[in-house]
Amino acid sequence: MTPILTVEGLGKGFVLHGQGGLALTVMRDLALDLRRGECLVLAGPSGIGKSTLLKILYGNYLAGEGRIRLHFSDGPMELGKLPAHAWHALRRDVIGYVSQFLRVVPRVSTCEVVMEPLLARGADAVESRYRAETLLARLNLPERLWSLPPGTFSGGEQQRVNIARGFIGEHPLLLLDEPTASLDAANRAVVIELIREAKARGAAMLGIFHDEDVRERVADRLLPLENYMDDPSRARIDASQLLQENDHA
Ligand SMILES: Nc1ncnc2c1ncn2[C@@H]1O[C@H](COP(=O)(O)OP(=O)(O)OP(=O)(O)O)[C@@H](O)[C@H]1O
C-alpha cells in the first residue's frame, strides 16, 4: 500500500544565538514512511528530537534538509515547497496535531474550542456541538465545565479538551505529542480506544508516548531516533537554556 507520508534525508539543526551562534544538529538523514491505519511511535531518550520531528511535520519548524511528502490519490505534495498560506488548509483538512498543552483563546467555551475544527470546514453547528459533547463525555469531562473557557482547568482536564479537539476532525494524518501524559488510567484507556478507532477508519498516526503500557497497546511499529542523531551526548542539553526558534507558521 502507498504510504500517506514519506520522509527522506531529513536534517534539522538550531543556531543558539544566546550561546555565540553555536550550531546544534538535532537529526541527520532521517527517513520514515507511514501508511493509512498505522500508528508509528517515536522512541528515544529525552532531547533526542521527537517533538522537533512532529513540529517539522506540522510546519511549526522548517526542516534544514530533506524531503517530506504527503501522498494523495492525485499525486504527492512536497511540504518543504509549500507556501506559508497553504498550511492553513492542510492543517484544517489533512494533518491534525494533539500537543501536550492546550493553547486556549480567552472567553471561548470548552465546547466551542472542541467543535471549532469542524466549523472551520463548514460543518453544521448543531451536529458539530453534538459531536463535541459526545467526545467530552467519553473523556469524562464533567458537563458543568463544557460551557466554561478551559484556561483555568486542571492539567488533565485541559489535556482532555485538547484530545477532543484533536480527534474530532478525523484528520487522515494525526500527530500525537504525549496525549496521555497528564491522564489517569481510565482516561488513558479512552485515548487508547480513540487511537484504535482512528486506525480502524484508516487514519495514519505518528506519536510520542512515554507510558510503556500505552505505547505497547497502540504502536504498530517503533522508530528509534537514536539512529538519526548527530551526537548522543547532546541529548542532555537543557532546552530551557536555549534561545527559542520562532514558529514559522
Ligand atoms: N526551538 C528550539 N531552539 C533551540 N533548540 C531546540 C528547540 N527546540 C528543540 N531544541 C533542541 O532540540 C533537541 C531535541 O528537542 P525535542 O524537544 O525534540 O526532544 P524530545 O525527544 O521531544 O525530548 P522530550 O522527550 O524530553 O520531550 C533538544 O536538545 C532541544 O534542546
Automatic annotation (TrEMBL):
SMART domains: AAA. One of its GO terms (molecular function) is lyase activity. Residues 5-249 form the ABC transporter domain. NCBIfam families: CP_lyasePhnL (TIGR02324). The gene is phnL. This is Phosphonate C-P lyase system protein PhnL. Belongs to the ABC transporter superfamily. Keywords: ATP-binding, Lyase, Nucleotide-binding. Gene3D superfamilies: P-loop containing nucleotide triphosphate hydrolases. It holds the Pfam family ABC_tran. The lineage of its organism: Bacteria, Pseudomonadati, Pseudomonadota, Gammaproteobacteria, Oceanospirillales.
